[in-house]
């Protein structure tokens, strides 16, 4: 009997496919660039399992173009790159990689918050440009983070890890979620409505998954509610923020700064944001520590192994 075919559509780690080798025929794309949908269908023709990463789009066209497909294992906790409705229609299971990147991503949210509040990007560029002549009382003044009120929109695993770190900074934490969490899960944070959070928080962190319901949850009206001294951090997904409205708010000083790891239409970044000196921008590296990325790849492959062994994949996201 022929062995199942697993297509790994993007370079992972050199030995990531090892647990699959005794169980399946593995097709490995050695390139580090995502395949466009038409190319992915060609590349994965005849496969039963597909391993994708955050940058790989797996739309209905791919799912419907691969009739034998049974499983899509995403390397990433967010899976908005996969058309899950199309997967459900085709009876294809989808898995993600929760937990293993929680702490690394929470660290990065803090790097962006501290960096944007204390203007590390702007002042570093200025120093490298050879502009630093003398120490100055008023040089690169930023906003306090310690003792401030932090607003977290999206109090899932990563939101809670961000909140835990806030206690070390003596901060009060507000959060907004669709539902209020039981006290033991809220890390001492207080649930408030989104508008109240935007009005009251000194700094706001977005960490919700992207879906049509969360598209532009922060746009011009929401930015208008924030304090002029506030920092906005987006560590969730591009599309949660209206990037052009944000760039305008930054340019007009309606908020102080932003720390952004994700962008609408990334890897393209709105030119207006690139032109905003008070935006600290990083290329979707929230989970990019060696150990977190390794654990993400291993968990994605473990899901495929579960399926090959006839078990329920351990981190299945759809029915
Ligand atoms: C995730 O896991 O969703 C990350 O954004 C990918 O690095």
TrEMBL record:
Coiled coil: none annotated. InterPro entries: D-isomer_2-hydroxyacid_DH, D-isomer_2_OHA_DH_cat_dom, D-isomer_DH_CS, D-isomer_DH_CS1, D-isomer_DH_NAD-bd, NAD(P)-bd_dom_sf. SUPFAM superfamilies: Formate/glycerate dehydrogenase catalytic domain-like, NAD(P)-binding Rossmann-fold domains. Residues 6-318 form the D-isomer specific 2-hydroxyacid dehydrogenase catalytic domain. Transmembrane segments: none annotated. Keywords: Oxidoreductase. Residues 111-286 form the D-isomer specific 2-hydroxyacid dehydrogenase NAD-binding domain. Pfam families: 2-Hacid_dh, 2-Hacid_dh_C. CDD domains: GDH. PANTHER family: 2-HYDROXYACID DEHYDROGENASE-RELATED (PTHR10996), GLYOXYLATE_HYDROXYPYRUVATE REDUCTASE B (PTHR10996:SF283). Belongs to the D-isomer specific 2-hydroxyacid dehydrogenase family. This is D-glycerate dehydrogenase. It comes from Pigmentiphaga soli.
């Amino acid at each position: 009997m022929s062995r199942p075919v697993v297509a790994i559509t993007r370079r992972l780690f050199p030995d990531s496919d090892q647990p699959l080798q005794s169980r399946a025929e593995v097709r490995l794309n050695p390139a580090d660039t995502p395949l466009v949908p038409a190319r992915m269908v060609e590349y994965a023709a005849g496969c039963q399992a597909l391993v994708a990463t955050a940058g790989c789009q797996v739309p209905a066209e791919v799912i419907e173009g691969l009739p034998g497909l049974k499983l899509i294992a995403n390397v990433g906790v967010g899976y908005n790159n996969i058309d899950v409705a199309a997967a459900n229609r085709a009876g294809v299971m989808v898995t993600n990689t929760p937990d293993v990147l929680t702490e690394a991503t929470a660290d990065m949210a803090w790097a962006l918050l501290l960096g944007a509040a204390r203007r590390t990007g702007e002042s570093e560029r200025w120093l490298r440009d050879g502009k630093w002549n003398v120490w100055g009382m008023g040089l690169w003044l930023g906003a306090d983070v310690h003792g401030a009120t932090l607003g977290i929109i999206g109090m899932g695993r990563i939101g809670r890890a961000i909140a835990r770190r806030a206690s070390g900074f003596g901060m009060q934490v507000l959060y907004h979620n669709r539902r209020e969490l039981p006290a033991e899960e809220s890390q001492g944070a207080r649930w408030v409505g989104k508008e109240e959070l935007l009005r009251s928080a000194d700094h706001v962190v977005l960490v919700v998954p992207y879906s049509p319901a969360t598209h532009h949850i922060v746009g011009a009206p929401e930015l208008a509610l924030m304090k002029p001294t506030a920092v906005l951090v987006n560590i969730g997904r591009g599309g949660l923020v209206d990037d052009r409205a944000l760039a305008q708010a930054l340019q007009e000083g309606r908020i102080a700064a932003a720390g952004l790891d994700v962008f609408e239409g990334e890897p393209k970044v709105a030119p207006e944001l690139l032109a905003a000196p008070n935006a600290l921008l990083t290329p979707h590296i929230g989970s990019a520590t060696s150990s977190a990325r390794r654990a993400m790849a291993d968990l994605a492959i473990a899901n495929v192994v579960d399926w090959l062994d006839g078990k329920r994949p351990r981190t299945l996201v759809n029915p």
